[in-house]
Amino acid sequence: MKQAIVILHGMGEQVPMTTLNSFVRSVWTTDDTLVDPGKPDPNTGGSRDRNVSWAKPDARNSSTELRRITTERDRAGNYTDFYEYYWAHLMQGTTWEHVSTWIKDLLLRDPRTRVPKRVFHAWVVLWIVALAVVGLTAWGLWPKAEAPKPWLAWLSALLGMATSAFVSAVLIKRFGDVARYVKALPPNVAKRHAIRQAGVDLLARLIDTKEYDRIVVVAHSLGTIVAYDILAQLYSYYNTHGGNGPQPERHRLEQMVRDALAGGKLDIDAYQDQQARAFAEAREQGAPWIVSDFITLGAPLAHAEFLIAESHDDLRERQRDRLLPTCPPVLEYDGTTKLLHFTYSTARDRALEDCRTPHHAALFGFTRWTNLYSHEKGILTGDLISGPVGDAFGLDGKGCVVSGIRDIAVLPAMTDGKVSEGHRRSFFSHNNYWALDKGTETTTPRVPHHIAELRRALRLLK
Prior knowledge:
Number of strands: 16
Oligomer: single chain
Strand order of the largest sheet: 2-3-4-1-5-6-11-14
Structural class: alpha/beta
Distance between the termini: 9 Å
Strand content: 5-15%
């Protein structure tokens, strides 16, 4: 089997290949379970101290700055190609005006209906900081009866420089990407389109070559929103292709969702296993869709009703309208079968296992979604940007949300809402999801928990 892993970086002025190189080191180069340790090093013919890979130019990247990293064959007989979808260069030119418009939109919200409980404390802190900045600015501009003392003038100057540096280095260069991407304002539309279209084009090229048996899309931070948009757009190009025989695995998958809606809970292990079987069945029948997994790391998608939609109700309406795919997919009623499906058929006499076509928003019927997040406490520990995404992107039922997303707490591991034994909290873990030296264990394990969970989600040996 040959597989492709495509990673999307997060916000900020990223350097091409930096994300990809560090990611490959964590999930391939240092994983001694992937290749037989006794196999000779393909470069030297001697004993090996790591798994081997090579960086090759690849026109499918559409950039001379990027390389495809291709691996030696693993113990399962698989070859893996790693790609980076680099989009930071498409988000240049952000100004304070772009950021301030976004911040005003966040601040001027009704906290009763438009600020989720999970981020309410951060919203309050944002207000405090904004009021403090306005107050200090007003105080500095207010005429004084006498000249300020020298130390006060120096302090004011230092505060001014610190504020200016923070605005430039953090608000504009980092959060400016968020401000421009999540708001469909006229100055942002061309940027949003260019970023999405380039990502769609890359994945379409990988699919259409028919070189790969599966593709895994991995995204970090703001890149998770970008990747979600790309996949939603791309799937609508492929959902109607393929399928020419009985589909018992697809039927079992839909029945599993119907049963979960009736009972209020979906077994994630069983659902993802059935997704894999339905995916394999569709591939055997000629379906071209090969994105088997979507893995999100530090995903602001957890706060979709705050960042992407106008409110919780608006988010659900967009999902019902199939603008935003859910996991499991939104269902529709079939007048012939008298059941709910995420597929449709125009055949007059159709049985439950007969061939059906998934609708354009049924992306997560066949693509598994795994989300790694770091539980935040007190803003300073964990990852405020991340969180579980199951509540936001699960299927909205009658009084319940049925989620098919595997949400995994890492950095630290959590058990029943508490830090697991042998783990500790860490400061600002947003950039640590594939960092080998950033584990939160109180001892030094051979493989840190967050790296083990990431490798498990990738399923490179499957």
